[in-house]
Each structure stands twice: as C-alpha cells, then as structure tokens.
Amino acid sequence: EAQVTQNPRYLITVTGKKLTVTCSQNMNHEYMSWYRQDPGLGLRQIYYSMNVEVTDKGDVPEGYKVSRKEKRNFPLILESPSPNQTSLYFCASSQTGGQPQHFGDGTRLSIL
Amino acid sequence: SQKIEQNSEALNIQEGKTATLTCNYTNYSPAYLQWYRQDPGRGPVFLLLIRENEKEKRKERLKVTFDTTLKQSLFHITASQPADSATYLCALGDSGTYKYIFGTGTRLKVLA
Lengths: 112, 112
Prior knowledge:
The complex is a heterodimer of chains A (112) and B (112). With 112 residues, chain A is mostly beta strands. Chain A has strands at 4-7, 10-13, 19-25, 31-38, 42-51, 54-57, 65-66, 76-78, 87-94, 102-103, 107-111. The radius of gyration of chain A is 13 Å and the shape is globular. Chain A starts with a strand and ends with a strand. The model of chain A has no long low-confidence stretch (mean pLDDT 96). Chain B is an all-beta fold. Helix content of chain B is 0%, strand content 57%. In chain B, the strands form 2 sheets. In chain B, strands 2, 4, 5, 9, 10 and 11 form a 6-stranded mixed beta sheet that branches. Chain A binds chain B through residues 4, 31, 33, 35, 40-45, 48, 50, 56, 58-59, 90, 92, 97-106, and chain B through 31-32, 34, 36, 41-46, 49, 89, 91, 93, 95, 97-105.
C-alpha cells in the first residue's frame, strides 16, 4: 500500500530537549515536504526537498532542521524545541515538485 | 506579501445541492493550484490539480476552475452528499521553487 509514515504520532516533551520526527514514503517519490498546521493559520510549509541531498526552506523554517540522505526518508529535527513549536505536523511526498502530494497522518507535538 | 484566502470558514448546504468553494490569492502568480480534502484527525487527501494554462478540470462530481486574471479558483461539488462533509484546502504552487502556500480551508457541512 502506498503510504507516508510518520513517527511518533503523538509526543509530549519539554523545552530544549532535542527531538526527531521521522517520515518515510514507499512510493519512490522525489519530492518530500514538512508542514505544520495551526488553528487559524492553516498548513504552512517548513522545509521541502526536491531530491536526495537537495533541501530548501519553506515559509516557516526557523527552529527546524531537515536532512535527505535517502530518497525514502525525510526526518524533521527540532534541536531545541520551544512551546511555540507545539503544533500538528504533516509530512508529504509527491512524484516530483508540482504533482499531487500524499500526506501522512500527522504528528501532534506538545512542548511544555 | 503573498496571501491566499478561502471564502469562508464554514459552509452549510442541503444534500443534493452544489457546493461552491472559493480560493482567492494576491501578490502571487502560481503555476498550479491544488485542492485537498481533510477530515478531522487525518492528513489532507489530494482531489484535483489545475495548471495556470488550464481553465477547468473535472473529476466525477468535482469541478475546479482557475482564473488567473481574477486570481481566483472555484471548487464545485455537485449533487453533494453528507459524506462530502469535510474541510477543503486550496494550495498554490510555484514552478520555479516548488514551494507551496495553503489556504486556511473551508469547512463544508452537507445537511441530510
């Protein structure tokens, strides 16, 4: 089954404790992206990747890091999480840029 | 700055009627526009993609139009059903950077 898998689905943690949210896709897609979704603000793009070793900033990259060492994986790293990063996060992938995106089921992060 | 607006936060219509959702944008020249459906607690699901050189696209009961002069897209669901109740998101994309901007969504409720 074609899917985008995110882990963990839920996480409560404390300020300053580094965390990684993993994202993996099994569709051999070149394009992958991370979004955060907040009430009243909609989905905002954090980072995206056109292909392996190619990443670029979205609209809200501050406080986040990403890497794309393999085609299927695109982890999101919060080096020093802060409460304003409490949000619902989605990973997505598509065949190439501009094509329909497949989204994961989301990761709900709470940073205290 | 770039801005994207969806017509209203919520839209209630009677079963069997046509639902029309609006997506307006400013300070942007997108190469393509996508519509997604999002159910509570789930990731967005792709519905339709329309490119800047296309006026209209159809898929079953769905139709999307794209007017680059008015800077507007209309999304229609004909013969609406209670199962169509969800939040609908529009997303604009840039062919140069492949960044995305999403609207905040319209919550559609189809009444039986």
